[in-house]
Design a protein that fits this description.
Elements (H helix, E strand, L loop, with lengths): L11 H21 L17 H4 L7 H17 L4 H36 L4 H12 L2 H5 L8 H18 L3 H12 L4 H16 L1 H4 L9 H17 L3 H9 L1 H20 L9 H25 L6 H28 L6 H23 L23 H5 L6 H26 L22 H30 L2 H21 L21 H8 L7 H21 L13 H33 L15
Helix pairs in contact: 1-3, 1-14, 1-15, 3-7, 3-11, 4-7, 4-15, 7-11, 8-11, 9-14, 12-14, 13-14, 15-16, 18-19, 18-23, 19-20, 19-23, 20-21, 21-22, 22-23
Length: 615
Amino acid sequence: MNPPASPTQRRYDLDWIRVGAFGLLILYHVGLVYGVYDWHIHSAHTFEWMREAILVTNPWRLTLLFLVSGAALRFMTFRRTPREVARARFERLVPPLIFGGLVLVPIQSWIESMDKGGWPGGVVGFVAWLSHEFGWSGLADGVPVNHLWFIVYIAVYSLVAVILWRQPGLIDRLGNGLEKALTGPRLLVLPILYLFAIRWLLFPWFGLTNTLHNDWYNHALSLVAFLFGFSIVGRESLWRTMERYRWIALALAAVALPIMMVQVWHPGARAFWGVPKAAVYGIDQWAVIVAILGFGYRHLRDRGGPALSYLTQATFPLYLAHQTVLVAAVWIIRPANLPAPVELLSLIAITFVGSLAIYEVVRRIPAIRPLWGLKPLDGRPWPLDLHALLKPQVRYHRRRRLLGVGVAAPLLALTVVAVAILAYPGFNNATQYLSELGGATAKAPIIFNGGVFVAGVMAGLAGIGFGLAIYALTGARVAAWVIAIVFILAGGGMSASTLWPWPDPRHMVINLALGIQLAPMLLLWGLAKRRDLPRLKLFLAVTFVVMAILTVLTKHLVFPGTVNDANVGWWERLYAIVLVCWVGVAAWVLDRKLLSVATESPHGRPASARFDVPA
């Protein structure tokens, strides 16, 4: 028998179970491609026996995940305050939910719409579908979250658990009650009775909707499982009881599963008001969970290692990515009419390998890690220290707010251009200029003009932030003023150009924005006395050289004919990307440096050890 463990001790068995459950979820979704139930997209091959086959995991998989998630949240409470736990949950769940809802889910939904609703493909079809889905009529039906409903539920259930935890002694009393009630065989009997009751009484009325406000059977099942896991962490007698009854639970599950399959297959399964069917379902549901938790506690609780660490980190990004990868893979592979076994293996391989490839990419890019449910590298704030910005506790918070605008401005500009291109049927990136996206021939010029106007204002504000940051770090007043003026003129040129859309001659006021080409050299001038920013200085120098080369080429000063009417659009795109994106990178690096200086230097002391720089 394992000795009692500290409630703060890492439970590797729960990590293994969580990883395994999410792996089964991916396989389950691949199975739905071949099933007879309604799903986002189906293979050309469907099999009636999938109706029974999915029962191997369907009754218990998500319930187990909610239980383990509740236990994981409880471990967080041992080393954090309620406010810190709530904030940690928000930071971990909300960015992926928003990102997934805006980027990942629309890809799935559009493919489903083309497959089932007859929407045309291509950019024009996507724009038309997007306008419908996110128009008034589409939003009236709710924002689709698809498989991300699990994140919504975890977020809400975490909030419920934290609220209950704040009540003095409530969770301890609940844990004590469960520990006393679930001794011996009652560990199996009482939960099965509860699961039978809600399956019999609630499921026929509410079903499973995965819609938060109208999913009462699911809440009675999943919220209770979540709070159960939250309450039993550290209750070693309960875990030892699960270990003791693991073989009995496995035997019960082995008997219940074939009976449950027969009940689904047989037309008379709802005889006796559905009581036998609900009872067998509840038995299988809890017996499998007890068996998994019992065997895990017995054999895996101390089995950590690099493989588990890697898989634990990868699980959330894989969950976010897998369904989008799978739906896209089915849509692409299905026309090939592959034999079912070959197609199945291909979908499994593409889904797992594709999702892992996405994880391997995003985990190496600090700026997007939190969008995929990953913590910032080395605990660094992402992408800015928002908590310090909202509740300033260190110096330079105003300057850092302005630098934050500098980080956001390029992202807004790139997003606006991408959306404007999608909204312009037939737009030719090779031959047309970006300004035409806001011109008379554009279908929705307000997208480009409005977005660029806001981005211009943001560029001006960012320039003020750059100037103040340079002054804070070096005390170079003249350089700070010149940098701010150049950015303000550039931002003003961008914003003013949208007031006179192309081909109005006054649109050429946008040439003021080209002055920002000098900004990298001006920043190098301002930072000349700093010796602790070598990589930023190298980046600024390379950026200036690249922009100079592009200017020389596009002005036909050398290699005439390299840039011509057939490819001028691509050259302009490249020039615009370099011109805009370096601003966000430089703003982010300077924000990090200001944060470092502010936290390392005593309040009221110089920002640099070498220079007497005012705050």
